[in-house]
Amino acid sequence: MTVDLTTRLVSADPAGIAAAVQCLARGGLVAFPTETVYGLGADATDGAAVARLYAAKGRPRFNPLIAHVPDLAAAGKLGIFNSDADRLAQAFWPGPLTLVVPRPPDCPVCDLATAGLDTIALRVPDHPVARRILRDFGRPVVAPSANRSGHVSPTQAAHVMADLRGRIEMIVDGGPTAVGVESTIVACIDEATLLRPGGLPRAAIEEALRHPLARAARPAESADEAPLAPGMLASHYAPRARLRLRVKDAEPGEAVLAFGPDLPPAMRHAKVLLNLSPAGDLVEAAANLFSHLRALDRAGVASIAVMPVPPEGLGEAINDRLQRAAAPR
Ligand code: AMP
Ligand code: MG
Questions:
Q1: In the 8-state DSSP scheme, what is residue 153?
Q2: Do the strands 303-306 and 255-258 form a parallel or antiparallel pair, or are they unpaired?
Q3: Could you say which ligand is closest to the alpha carbon of residue 232?
Q4: Pocket probe mutation, ligand 1, options 36, 80, 195, 237, max atoms within 8 Å of Cβ
Q5: 60 near 286, Cβ under 8 Å?
Q6: Ligand 1 centroid distance, CA of 269 (Å)
Q7: Cβ < 6 Å from ligand 1: which residues?
Q8: 56-113 tens-digit pLDDT
């Protein structure tokens, strides 16, 4: 996928911004400057666009992404802010601070962007080009660093071009970025907790809160990509039902998570069946992964039979998530 696109480089002038907004609205991938690094933007409400973003970066895992918005009012429509979250947003937005807050049931951000979690990471970036795009687009935009997985974060449009040419639709050149470090991430779920140190120092946050931050324990997973997981913060989505992976039969009463056009006879008649992609398209399957798992879980079954998903492309990240969801708890 996306290896032979024409990648347009546009200036951060009104015509370039307008082109970027139109491209996002069509489900395209647009790199643009934030005050930290260049982000690779996609419409956070569009599961297929977010799936294409993972494919373009070549990430082997679906980690939850940060939804970027132009201001606190827009953020308030996507997350539930307690008094700590409100205080931090008032004090530091726009700026290099990401807040993880509970996600309301009507949150329009797609399940793939939050990796199926009941929480959402939100940020208002402090960069005139990023804010103009977010304001004009009017929907939240996920924007992880605009580089291939495992490569260094880009601080210039030319870095993005070198790394992602042919894999994304557009790059908005707004000159070099200033901070060069990632945002600080604070969870405001129960106790305000530092999840990732970054561009905004802990002392400034504690001063605004007028109390110390709790510090999260890091799970033994991949160092820089895994979300930290204290108390209520699940490190990854886990269904209540048991998962049986790579199976071609379904036991009585079991729900089926299918993939592709050819369903084995033993599965076709399951009472509860959802197909990740009837066409066998891995981008579509990725976009549906978390919402289908949630829907099957809501059906109240004890077990979900999951058909094999090929390991190529996004299949690697899909299989990674399925394996974690199947791990005994
Ligand atoms: P970035 O690499 O700057 O795009 O930040 C993405 C990081 O934000 C992820 O790797 C997670 O560590 C963190 N994150 C995003 N959403 C959540 C969430 N709901 N809960 C905890 N951490 C999150
Ligand atoms: Mg990165």
A1: P
A2: parallel
A3: 1
A4: 195
A5: no
A6: 39
A7: 63-66, 100, 114, 117, 119-121, 144, 182-183, 185, 195, 225, 227, 233
A8: 999 889 999 999 999 999 999 999 999 999 999 999 999 999 999 999 999 999 999 9
Ligand nearest to the CA of 59: 2
Domains in the chain with CATH codes: 8-209 (3.90.870.10), 242-326 (3.40.50.11030)
Dump pLDDT digits (tens) for 4-47.
899 999 999 999 999 999 999 999 999 999 988 999 999 999 99
State the CB neighbour count (10 A cutoff) for residue 173: 21
Q: Which long-range contacts (CB under 8 A, 24 or more apart) does 240-244 make?
A: 240/297, 241/296, 241/297, 241/301, 241/302, 241/303, 241/304, 242/302, 242/303, 242/304, 242/326, 243/303, 243/304, 243/306, 243/322, 243/325, 243/326, 244/303, 244/304, 244/305, 244/306, 244/326
* Percent helix / strand / coil, the chain, rounded to 5: 30, 20, 55
- The tokens of 282 are what? 């891995």
Nearest 10 degrees: Cα torsion 95, 55, 240, 328: -110
What is the Å distance from ligand 2's center to 41 Cα? 13
Write down the pTM of the prediction.
0.90
Tell me the CA–centroid distance for residue 150 and ligand 2, in Å: 8
